[in-house]
Amino acid sequence: MTRAVTVLLVDDHAVVREGYRRLLERSPSIRVVGEAFDAQSAYVAFVELKPQVTVLDIALPGVSGIDALRRIRTRVPQARVLMFSMYEDPVYAARALQAGARGYVTKAAAPDVLVEAVLTVARGESYLAGRVAHELALRNVTEKKEAVECLSPREFEVLRLLVAGRQLPEIAKSLGLTAKTVANHQSILRQKLGANTAVQLLQAAARLGITQEQNVR
Fold first, then answer.
1. What is the pTM of this model?
2. Mean pLDDT over the full length of the chain
3. Measured between alpha carbons, how far is 104 from 28 in angstroms, rounded to an integer?
4. Would you kindly state where each structural domain of the chain is located, as residue ranges?
């Protein structure tokens, strides 16, 4: 008998985790062995449980899921991580894949898509849901791709939090940086994106597909 794929489920909402646990475990081929609610608990659970697949949300409290992904892959480079997020714009999928994710599924996808994605990633293959895959392919030949990829991972995260309405001290605390460092990131973002004001920076972020509405939890 084939052993079930072991899964670590990471999302900051307990009710959401419970719902997705039930969804995944409808499949006899999947067994959820643990849950986590933020980047630190995700890392600890990953090290302790050694899941075959980690299903990881991007929008976690404090350090983001993409930062958690990098930390996990620093410890285990071959770790199979599936990003599962509310963000539908391909810019998020692109950043996740660049950080080493094996797949990306949005929470708007049909329930069976997540099951299929977990089993695909467990086999060592990559998985992108239809709409995201299509838009990501189109994005590969656009100027948007170049603009996003000119940002470092930390700059991208600071931009995401600025668009979400976070103030510099709050961002600094969330990312474990000094306020001066965050302010420097903000200045570099303005230079790279050709923005002279905070409003222009938000407009530039919107053109990249990073909007305030997407960041509302």
1. 0.67
2. 85
3. 22
4. 5-139, 143-215
| CB 157 within 8 Å of CB 66 | yes
Q: Which residue has the tokens 């100027």?
A: 143
The pLDDT value given to residue 146: 56
Give the tens place of pLDDT for each residue, 95-146: 888 889 999 998 888 888 999 999 999 999 989 876 665 566 545 544 455 5
| 143-215 has the same fold as 5-139 | no
Residue type, 115: V
Considering the segment(s) 143-215 as one domain, its CATH architecture is: Orthogonal Bundle (1.10)
Q: Per-residue DSSP letters for 157-214?
A: HHHHHHHTT--HHHHHHHHT--HHHHHHHHHHHHHHHT-SSHHHHHHHHHHTT--HHH
- The hierarchical CATH code for the domain 5-139 is 3.40.50.2300
